[in-house]
C-alpha cells in the first residue's frame, strides 16, 4: 500500500510557482489509497489543460482505476479525441471505461482548456459539481458546470462544452466532493453552498490557497480525519 501510494503521488503534477499560469494543490486521501486524481499541462503553445476526477469507492481498486485513467491523460493517448476539446475527451473516456468492463466502477470528472491568446476557458463536466472561477476582486464565484452523466455509467453518450472569459489575475478552483462534504463540530452536514464562502475569503500571505482552504475545512470538521478524499487544485491566470 505504501508503494502504491508513492506511485500515485509521483503521477501528480508539480505545482507551478512561476509563469503566466500558476498552480497549487493539496491531496489528502481519507485512506491509504483513494480514487481522486488530477493533472494539468500544456497541449500547445497557447493551450493549457487541467482536470480532476473522482473514482467511486476507496482503496486499491479505486486507486488502480484512477492510475489507468491518469496515465492515458498524461500520455495524451486518447484515440479519436482532441485533448483541446473537453466534450471529446469525456466521450472518449466514457467509451473506454464502461462500468461493465471495470468492476462496476465509475467516476465523475471536470475537464477544462484555457486558451491564453483568447483568454478563454472551455470546459465540460461529467456528473461532477462545478469548478469555480473567481475574478481578481473575489466579488463572486462563477460556477462552471455542464450537464452530463458520470463517466462509465452509460455507453455512447455525448457531452457539451461551454466557454467563459478569464480576466487577468482570476483564479480557478477545481476540487472533489470530499472538500465540502463534512459534518461540522455542531453536527451539521455541509454542502457545496457552505464551502463557496470560504473560497471568497481573502488569501493569506505566504500560504497557498489550497492549504488555506484545507485548514478552514479541517477546523470546521468534527473529526480529526476527513470522511472522504480531499483534493483541491487552484490555478491562477495572469
Give keywords.
5-stranded antiparallel β-sheet, 24% helix, globular
Please provide a written account of the structure:
The structure is a single chain. The relative contact order is 0.18. The radius of gyration is 17 Å and the shape is globular. The protein has helices at 2-11, 60-74, 86-96, 192-200, 209-220; strands at residues 21-28, 36-44, 47-55, 107-115, 120-126, 131-134, 142-144, 162-165, 170-175, 230-237. The longest helix has 15 residues, at 60-74. The strands form two sheets. Strands 1-10-9-6-7 form a five-stranded antiparallel β-sheet, covered by helices on one side. A five-stranded antiparallel β-sheet has the order 2-3-4-5-8, with helices on one face. By secondary structure, the chain is an alpha+beta fold.
Helices and strands in order:
Layout: H1 2-11, E1 21-28, E2 36-44, E3 47-55, H2 60-74, H3 86-96, E4 107-115, E5 120-126, E6 131-134, E7 142-144, E8 162-165, E9 170-175, H4 192-200, H5 209-220, E10 230-237
Antiparallel strand pairs: 1-10, 2-3, 3-4, 4-5, 5-8, 6-7, 6-9, 9-10
Amino acid at each position: 500500500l505504501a508503494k502504491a501510494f508513492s506511485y500515485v503521488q509521483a503521477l501528480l503534477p508539480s505545482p507551478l510557482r512561476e509563469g503566466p499560469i500558476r498552480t497549487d494543490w493539496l491531496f489528502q486521501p481519507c485512506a491509504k489509497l483513494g480514487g481522486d486524481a488530477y493533472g494539468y499541462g500544456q497541449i500547445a503553445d497557447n493551450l493549457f489543460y487541467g482536470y480532476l476526477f473522482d473514482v467511486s469507492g476507496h482503496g486499491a481498486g479505486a486507486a488502480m482505476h484512477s492510475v489507468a485513467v491518469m496515465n492515458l491523460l498524461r500520455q495524451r493517448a486518447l484515440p479519436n479525441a482532441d485533448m483541446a476539446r473537453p466534450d471529446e475527451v469525456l466521450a472518449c473516456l466514457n467509451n473506454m471505461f464502461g462500468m461493465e468492463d471495470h468492476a462496476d466502477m465509475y467516476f465523475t470528472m471536470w475537464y477544462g482548456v484555457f486558451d491564453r491568446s483568447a483568454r478563454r476557458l472551455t470546459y465540460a463536466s461529467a456528473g461532477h459539481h462545478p469548478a469555480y472561477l473567481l475574478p481578481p476582486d473575489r466579488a463572486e464565484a462563477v460556477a462552471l458546470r455542464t450537464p452530463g452523466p458520470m463517466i462509465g455509467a452509460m455507453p455512447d453518450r455525448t457531452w457539451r462544452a461551454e466557454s467563459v472569459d478569464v480576466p487577468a489575475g482570476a483564479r480557478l478552483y477545481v476540487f472533489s466532493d470530499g472538500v465540502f462534504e463534512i459534518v461540522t463540530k455542531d453536527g451539521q452536514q455541509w454542502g457545496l453552498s457552505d464551502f463557496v464562502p470560504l473560497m471568497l475569503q481573502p488569501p493569506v500571505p505566504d500560504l497557498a490557497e489550497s492549504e488555506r482552504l484545507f485548514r478552514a475545512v479541517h477546523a470546521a470538521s468534527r473529526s480529526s480525519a476527513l470522511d472522504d478524499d480531499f483534493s483541491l487544485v487552484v490555478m491562477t491566470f495572469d
